[in-house]
Amino acid sequence: MFSKILIANRGEIALRVIRAAREMGLSTIAVHSTADSDAMHVRMADEAICIGPPPATSSYLNVSAIISACEITGAEAIHPGYGFLSENASFAQIVEDHKIKFIGPSAAHIRIMGDKITARETMKNLGVPCVPGSDGGVADLRFARAVAEQTGFPLIVKATAGGGGRGMKLARSLEELETAFRTARAEAKATFGNDKVYLEKYLGAPRHIEVQVFGDGKGNAVHLGERDCSIQRRHQKVFEEAPGPTIDAETRARIGEICTRAVADIGYEGAGTIEFLYENGAFYFIEMNTRLQVEHPVTEAVFGVDLVREQIRVAAGKPMSFAQEDLQVNGHAIEVRVNAEKLPEFSPSPGRVTQYHAPGGLGVRMDSALYDGYSIPPYYDSLIAKLIVHGRDRPEALARLNRALGEVIVDGVDTTIPLFRELMLAEAVQTGDYTIHWLEQWLESHPG
Predict the structure, then answer these.
(1) Is the pLDDT of residue 78 over 90?
(2) Do you find a cis peptide bond into 348, omega within 30 degrees of 0?
(3) What is the tens place of the pLDDT at every residue in 133-148?
(4) DSSP letters of 102-169?
(5) pLDDT tens per residue across span 356-391
(6) What is the CATH number assigned to the segment(s) 207-445?
(7) Alpha-carbon gap, residue 283 to 207, rounded angstroms
């Protein structure tokens, strides 16, 4: 087992890793920018090293500074959290080249799944159902028209290196296809430095279902059920729950087995998430995230496992501490992402938190790095907290979420908490009857 772990991240996920490591008796090293000198993860770690000025490109994305921090402190492993360098294959390779353990999958697996065309082809060959569309990249408009004639409209033009909804354009006809194709390529080039795109059939009213998988890197793997992440705004998840309200035990076992077999066959190591669009009882693969997800706590709640602890164990060469038969769904869990944003524009709202109070009570968990007097910097993602609730069933989880939202106090900055309090009154949220388009349609009808 390692003795020292460096966390190459910040905020609540850095704290999350510190807590797991501390329970395992491991020392932790925090890295931080000058803007995060007073951050909670810096205060809580055993050691802390400043790696650069506020911009992420000069600090949290500064690979040489992070490697130097490992060498200075004697850290044997790096946990990347999520975001930043967590799915950067080059970083993972550099870490390994310096004889430091990257707590996550191999650089090769990150690279395969980071390119959406390669990921799609790989998963298709492994027996994972995929959305109908082009078999590979689409280089020109003539090829795009041929795919459209075979697949039918509507279609989504998607950047192979895309994410977060960027490099994605909808085409409902041949007339719209040319504009969508050119716009998606230009946006992809500007955002990712890669203008390669592919085409997929656009599903009219799907849900976003993701399956949590875990492998030991030696050909053994399990799945930990699914999460429904359909409540999204601009392709960004805001409300996640496990298990999915529309997924029964038989369906869960079926798609879980397909995903488990796929990651076992490639010798995948650590935590990963296979994401699907789900419509009319059918699953369609869209991407695989080769890291811990923001919403991992809902899976931890319903299965009673610590996914970060398991990541560290497997990275250290230990066997998984559970088998598939040990993993049974227990109750229902929901997570909402609290952002420092001003409504209804959803514009960033950095600033000083004058008062902070986290909710408590049975079945309530608040993952956050906030504290009274903390100044939220303007340089990073606006996520400031994740409120997770767990109950014996979905109605109890919803009741706990409603109660917990009423207890949260974050003064001094605007947050998205009022949005969630309103959403709790929506019939679709109460019944679980929603699709990936529901929230944006709801927001249009509730402009205030």
Answers:
(1) yes
(2) no
(3) 888 888 888 889 998 8
(4) ESSS-HHHHHHHHSHHHHHHHHHHTT--B-SB-SS---SHHHHHHHHHHH-SSEEEEEEEEETTEEEE
(5) 999 999 999 999 999 999 999 999 999 999 999 999
(6) 3.30.470.20
(7) 10
Which CATH architecture group holds 4-103?
3-Layer(aba) Sandwich (3.40)
- Grouping H, G, I as helix, E, B as strand and the rest as coil, residue 350 is coil
Q: What values do phi and psi take at 321, rounded to 5? A: -85, 5
Q: In this structure, are residues 196 and 117 in contact, taking their beta carbons and an 8 Å threshold?
A: yes
For the cut 80, the answer to whether the pLDDT of residue 165 exceeds it is no
Q: How far is CA 397 from the centre of its chain?
A: 22
**Which secondary structure element, helix H or strand E, spans residue 345, and what is its range?**
none
For residue 83, give the 3-state DSSP assignment.
Answer: coil
**Which one from 111, 207, 291, 313 is the annotated catalytic residue?**
291
Residue 38 has pLDDT above 70, yes or no: yes
- Burial of 294 from C-beta contacts in 10 A (0-12 / 13-18 / 19+): buried
At the topology level, CATH places domain 132-201 in: Dna Ligase; domain 1 (3.30.1490)
Token couple for 102: 């990257």
Active-site residue, 392 included: no
Query: Does residue 389 contact residue 364 with C-beta atoms inside 8 Å?
Result: yes
Look up residue 278 and give its DSSP letter.
Answer: E
Contacts of 376 (CB under 8 A, 6+ apart): 340, 349, 350, 351, 352, 353, 370, 384, 413
Domain boundaries, the chain: 4-103, 132-201, 207-445
pLDDT of residue 163: 65
The sign one gets for the Cα dihedral 406, 407, 412, 413 is negative
* The two structure tokens encoding residue 175: 């007339």
Tell me the C-alpha to C-alpha distance, in Å, between residue 286 and each of 40, 143, 203, 336.
Answer: 35, 21, 12, 23
Confidence of residue 195 (pLDDT cuts 50, 70, 90): confident
Rounded Cα distance between 344 and 416, Å, is 9
Q: At what angle do helices 89-97 and 107-114 cross, to 10 degrees?
A: 170
pLDDT over threshold 90, residue 244: yes
Pairing of strands 27-33, 47-52: parallel
User: What is the C-alpha to C-alpha distance for residues 198 and 100, in angstroms, rounded to an integer?
Assistant: 36
Q: For residues 27 and 47, what is the distance between their CA atoms, to the nearest angstrom?
A: 8
